[in-house]
Amino acid sequence: MSTPDGPTDLAGMRERNLALVLAEIDRSQPITRARLAALTGLTKTTVSARVAALTALGLVSAEDPVRAGRGRPGAPVSVASGPIAGLGLEINVGYLSACVLDLTRRVRIRRSVLRAGAGSDPDRDVAALGRLAHAVTGQARRAGLTLVGTTVAVPGVLHGGAVNAPNLGWDALPAAELLAEALPSQPLPVTVDNEANLAALGELWFGAGAGLGDYVYVSGETGIGAGIVVAGALFRGTHGAAGELGHVVVAPGGPACRCGGRGCLEQVAGLDAVLRAADVPDTAPAGPDVRDSADLLGAGAAELVRRLEAKDRRALAAAKRAGEGLGIALVAVTNLFDPAALVLGGLPARMAPWLTPHITAALEAGGGRLRGRTPTIWRSELTDGAVLGAAGEVVARVLAAPSAVA
Amino acid sequence: MSTPDGPTDLAGMRERNLALVLAEIDRSQPITRARLAALTGLTKTTVSARVAALTALGLVSAEDPVRAGRGRPGAPVSVASGPIAGLGLEINVGYLSACVLDLTRRVRIRRSVLRAGAGSDPDRDVAALGRLAHAVTGQARRAGLTLVGTTVAVPGVLHGGAVNAPNLGWDALPAAELLAEALPSQPLPVTVDNEANLAALGELWFGAGAGLGDYVYVSGETGIGAGIVVAGALFRGTHGAAGELGHVVVAPGGPACRCGGRGCLEQVAGLDAVLRAADVPDTAPAGPDVRDSADLLGAGAAELVRRLEAKDRRALAAAKRAGEGLGIALVAVTNLFDPAALVLGGLPARMAPWLTPHITAALEAGGGRLRGRTPTIWRSELTDGAVLGAAGEVVARVLAAPSAVA
């Protein structure tokens, strides 16, 4: 338990104390320096020096002093709502999306571009993400914000620095490297992560996640993925590829999947499969469809929901098939992970009223008797959880290593 | 980081130090008191007092003193190979098994009773386990051993203190309570745990587990279960029911399962299903089949393996069907958990040469392209992993709370 404190470790210790003080401000704001000293165990002198450094970095700001009794006024500090901010990006088959969060985790900018069906040109994808990021960075600058880092959500598996995203046509794409060139220059390195993982974190930080216990978040558009949250943190597996729910086999010998298997869940419950089964055309936007909202629902999915509401027979049959497939996959999830809750996000959240009865029936039959209980099914209220989680991840990185923003 | 050290906490601190010293002896034995003081950070006086207490409890014994240079001879101590020992018990459809480990984790007694097909009389099961435990306790006494605790492996799910084990006909059975009455009286409370969990720990402590990274251990007899090891510890899920691999659906709409679902893995790859498909009669032992070995293979399974070796057409077809079912379930495991290894234990280990090709093919097809790698498949060399793990669990409890054996 000894702390290295030789001269060579002084910089490291300062950085640790900086992060310690910032994390405590984040948890307990507004908070006085005296209270910070009490909570962190640091001396008041150290706290004052670190607060001054955090203020100089633009990470912390002083509130109006509060006069406590007759003494010197306490000078509470809070995490600054500017200028430092983080950029979340998401690319999926049907859209690109961006979200800017300041360090108080308030959404300052949302922008999405809906696009037509499956892309299969990684260069074009990277360039399009770069254009969106440059546009949003300009908008942020005009709002007085400085973007210090970017996390990008992708519908694929990270594999030794490269990304396999069959639905985008990305095959071992060195995405972080390519994006680093295409995106505006920033002090923090570009991070790429699986969209379901980031959406699960989005639910934890901005949705209902913190109150659910351990949960498995089901995310879906063309592909289907899951983010697994255990004890408030992502469960990532040995190689970072845990939660590939879309490739659980639910129809043995069924339709071929881009992963190389057959009868995978996403061939039954993914957007393309459901639209095909419901005979809904996945129309491309007529012109540029740019939105400043959290609504990422494309024309095909919107039409599907309309037909479900109108009790269209083919749409209902497609939803039933998707719900039964999800039921089989979520029985596997429940039997293997025994989570407290299952969270439906993305397309499954939009289709929840028509999917949930089938999922519930499958869970009650499949092992429900054995376990004596089934997990709670929660429909996410966030419609852009992945890009929110991506931006939140940048904020988390700033809090963990504050001086990196300099 | 302050340690409570008021008079009321003195007993607690002594117990913690006792466990600390014993754990260090277990890790580094034989070890001198001086080295123990250096490694634990306790004073030599405290170490000597705690070693004396552990010796009085029968948990630690002195080795021959080693003369280091000219000084006083060091007096190394080790964990005692007697009299204190732990009892592991296992009940499964086809057998009861017992194993005694001393605190050095050496197997001192093994005894199993093979029995005919599915039992469905919990009272008879509990009584039979009690008789086996009494017999083994007598045998242990004659060998100079004192059994201080028992852990019982069951092929079922624990659910708020009760056990659901459909293949035994146990429905919410308060097993620990009933067993506490039937077993010989011991200082530690009776613990009941899932057999796959204990077999996974058996592999970790006595098999290849420690070198595999995170793994999912597949255990099976009539039922099929999995024990999930993450970072050297069991992953148990929210309600302790994680790893119910046998109820992953591999044949949607397929045969009804005792869990209430249809097409569960154990209806395709469990012992009864495989024997039925291979047309092998599951004959009861003609007389009492009591064994003092680690071999728990019943007559039916033994006959199945003989026919597989003889390339019997029906047996090979049954193994193919089981292997394909396991393949589908293990694709789900791999996609969801992303483990470094899959360990085959129990019946799947016995059938490994005939199952593994199908499992490997399924893993390579199903998402293998997406992830770029498939987990290692390891065939357990332990044939009684669950009962070994059960006895090991008692040893672990003694090490964690040494004075409880008094």
Summary tags:
alpha/beta, 5-stranded mixed β-sheet, 6-stranded mixed β-sheet, 406 residues, homodimer, 14 helices
Blueprint (SSEs and pairs):
The structure is a homodimer of 406-residue chains.
Chain A: H1 10-28, H2 33-40, H3 44-56, E1 60-62, E2 77-79, E3 84-91, E4 95-102, E5 107-114, H4 122-142, E6 146-154, E7 157-159, E8 162-165, E9 170-173, H5 175-182, E10 191-194, H6 195-206, E11 215-220, E12 224-230, E13 233-234, H7 266-269, H8 271-278, E14 289-291, H9 299-309, H10 313-337, E15 341-344, H11 346-350, H12 352-365, H13 368-371, E16 376-379, H14 385-400
Parallel strand pairs in A: 3-6, 6-10, 11-15, 15-16
Antiparallel strand pairs in A: 1-2, 3-4, 4-5, 5-14, 7-8, 8-9, 11-12, 12-13
Give a short summary of the structure.
The structure is a homodimer of 406-residue chains. In chain A, 41% of the residues lie in helices and 20% in strands.
Radius of gyration of chain A: 23 Å
Please tally the helical runs of chain A, counting DSSP H or I stretches of 4 or more residues.
14
User: How many beta-strand runs of chain A?
Assistant: 16
The interface involving the most residues is between: A-B, 58 and 58 residues
Q: Would you tell me the structural class of the helices and strands of chain A?
A: alpha/beta
Task: Look at the structure and give the mean pLDDT of chain A.
Answer: 91
Helix content of chain A: 40-55%
Estimate what percentage of residues of chain A fall within beta strands: 15-25%
The biggest beta sheet of chain A is recorded as: 6 strands, mixed
